[in-house]
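subagent[fold] <- orchestrator: predict structure for attached chain, return tokens only, no commentary.
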Amino acid sequence: MTRIPLRPLATILDARKKGSDPDAIERRHTSQRHDAMQTEMKGMAEGRLLVLMFMFLCAFGVISARMGLLAGSEAAEPRVAAGGHEILAQRADIVDREGRVLATNIETHSLYAQPQEMIEPERSAKELVKIFPELELERLNKDFGGKRKFVWIKKKISPEQKQLVHDIGEPGLLFGPREARLYPNGKMASHVLGGTNFGREGVHAAEVIGIAGVEKTFDTYLRNPANGTAPLQLSLDMTVQTAVERVLYGGMKLMNAKGAASILMDVHTGEVISVVSLPDFDPNDRPVAPTEGSPDDSPLFNRALQGVYELGSTFKVFTIAQAIDLRLVNQNTMINTRGPLKWGKHRIRDFHNYGNTLDVETVLTKSSNIGTARIAQMIGAKRQKAFLGALGMLETTAIEMPEASGGKPLVPKNWSEISTMTISYGHGLSTTPMHLAAAYAAIANGGRKVTPTLVKQSAPNYGPQVLSPQVAKLMQGMMRKVVTDGTASFGEVAGYSVGGKTGTADKPKPRGGYYKDKVISTFASVFPTNKPRYVLIVTLDEPEVFTYGEKRRSAGWTAVPVAAELINRVAPLLGLRPEIEQGKLAGITLTSN
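subagent[fold] -> orchestrator:
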């Protein structure tokens, strides 16, 4: 504001010349100054009022919008409330090696109640119990009769159940859409897939998270929107898996076993084509983990990865392979098998008396504990431990399942000479069937270590060379003789050259010691031995079969015939053509031109 002088000199002098009153000039100028000041202050006040009015309008606008959203939203308790856009419910599919669906998503609904909107809460509670017998009538009446504004009833219901609830006609019973995980093949590959559960939940959405198996291992990948519609492709073959589960289940029942496990692995890629643990479960309705009792009593227990067992004479293959590779023996070297073999207070005996000496090949074929122990003495503890470590037998397997961490091998604290002798024939060191499969794969593929995997591979995946190719080839021939001339005679499969090694070990008690009448029987097989492609491990927990007038528990009578039937069933599914031996044609003599 420009200040106006009250008594400007020029104006005063001019007024005096004209005879005017100079004081009148001052009064006029004072009035003009006051008018200007009032105009300026009025403008400032009006500006402040406009700003304040705009701020109040914004505040009331925000409050009104929020009230409108709340009035139009569904009732929900704060602990489960979440906007649908904040919950990533979409989850990628899981498929087998041929692209067949193992796990996918379906649209389903949740069921909740607004008790204050219910007209007949007691009748509704009775009707709900008829539809969902697992619900408690007393609990529902208490929830519906209280002051709660929101009550979860069921987190996931089927379309049929939704229709039945709808028919109750109760306006206070409401449905919320959500996505759920579906395993269309039921129990098939249940231990591999594992299962899912709901994480963060809202009325209109729920977060699906993996809680076991590959669902948990690959949870981040499966939930990542950046992957688009790309599924997780496993190494499993659904057709082979189904056949193995059926045959193994039948074999388990036939052999009166408590449980069973099998692993079918590609010896060049480490791909697990099939892995089964029985008893199993349906991941669509995953049971609750037990809080007491033995872990292997639960169907959730994965015997192939978590079952840490002494695997008996299957280890003899490693002992003999290492001794030949170190040039300590060859297949024709004669070994002293006179028994019992004494070491301090320990006595090592054979199942049968094989005489005073056997060559190395026959030690394996006849499965001589004494002969194998003497060969192990030549190797020594340090070299034996190093070789088994190179095969991956002393650490948990790297297969993509969280359950594998529970299958850590039990290694002796003091790897003494007697430990070396007993470990040579599979006692004193406990591992899982998955460890055994990977180790046998190394022998079958020419001596190169492979890492078990459940993800489809596009090429061979070899690790370090742990055994010379020549010795690996020799061992393949010796394992073939175990089937043709030795303890695995029931393992012969027409058209397929099967080799392997049996193993029968006393089952340990939970608090130390061993059962006298319970065993773990195992058959580790390779086929076809002339050009190995696959390793098959079959393990039976507490088998017992009555045949030829007596009870039999050894692997040759239990695990071997089950494995033979498995190979006979799945080899064609794997694309292996049987080799037909050419017979003589009656009355025809072949001549050369």
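orchestrator: received. Logging for downstream: The two ends are 129 Å apart (CA to CA). The domain at 240-570 is CATH 3.40.710.10 (Beta-lactamase).
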